[in-house]
Amino acid sequence: MHYIEAPHPYSEYALHKSIYLAGGITNCPDWQQQMVHLLRHTDYTLLNPRRKCFPITAPNASREQITCEYHVLRDASVILY
């Protein structure tokens, strides 16, 4: 398994089978880490929009997050909610 967390680019793994862990990231349980645990022995690239530390005070943080999510939603092999 490969693991990539927003906002890091994932283009180096674009040819791999990828799963985007879409869905809630604010004020909800961290279900994405549960999926990472369940899929750890697979050959998928897991793309996680939930950051360990979101820089809420950074002026471009939200724009960067939304841009990253848009591209991953478009390019992922599978989208998991």
Tags for this model:
alpha/beta; Rossmann fold; globular
Question: How would you describe this structure to a colleague?
Answer:
This protein is of the alpha/beta class and 81 residues long. The radius of gyration is 12 Å and the shape is globular. The chain has one domain (2-80): Rossmann fold. The model has no long low-confidence stretch (mean pLDDT 87). Strand 2 (18-21), helix 1 and strand 3 (45-48) form a beta-alpha-beta unit. Helix content is 28%, strand content 19%. Strands 1-3-2-4 form a 4-stranded parallel beta sheet, with helices on one face.
Structure at a glance:
The chain is α/β, with parallel strands linked by helices and 81 residues long.
Write the topology of this structure.
Elements: E1 2-5, E2 18-21, H1 31-38, E3 45-48, H2 61-75, E4 78-80
Parallel strand pairs: 1-3, 2-3, 2-4
Radius of gyration: 12 Å
Overall, the morphology is globular
Q: Approximately what portion of the residues adopt beta-strand conformation?
A: 15-25%
Give the uncertain stretches in residue-range form. none
Secondary structure category: alpha/beta
**Residues in helices, as a percent range:** 25-40%
Largest sheet: 4 strands, parallel
Mean pLDDT: 87
Overall domain count: 1
- Strand-and-helix sequence, N→C? EEHEHE
What is the count of helical runs? Answer: 2
C-alpha end-to-end distance: 19 Å
Q: Give the CATH architecture.
A: 3-Layer(aba) Sandwich
In which order are the strands of the major sheet placed?
1-3-2-4
CATH class reads Alpha Beta
